[in-house]
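Protocol step 4 of 5: obtain the predicted structure for the target chain.
Materials: sequence only (see below). No template structures provided, no constraints applied. The aim of this step is simply to have a reference model before the mutagenesis design in step 5. Sequence pasted as it appears in the construct record:
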Amino acid sequence: MLATAQRRAVIHHLIRSCILTGFGVFIIYLVRTGSLLQYVEPALSLYVKLSAMGLFATAIYQLHSAWDSWRGVDAAACDCNHDPSQSAIANVFYYGLFLLPLALGFLL
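Step 4 output (structure tokens):
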């Protein structure tokens, strides 16, 4: 059975991975439908497409971090880790700041 802090870490990493994957999928959706140029300068479209690959790579890293947290592997004790807030309201607000534009992008 996972400890509460360990379970919270897994959930936060999975949420972050889903958000990053969502933004990557949204960029691919814009490219496939041909509407990327409505939002981005044509000279920058290559960089936006490359950023989708970076988003997917970061999402995979977050999945790996979730897997490590699930197995109980701790990060190096360098005091460089930033734990998420323990307040549910703060977490809903912070993740909502990213989920709202993502949802509006897919719905509109």
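Step 4 remarks: The helical segments are 4-33, 45-71, 88-107. DSSP finds three helices and no strands in the chain.
Proceed to step 5.
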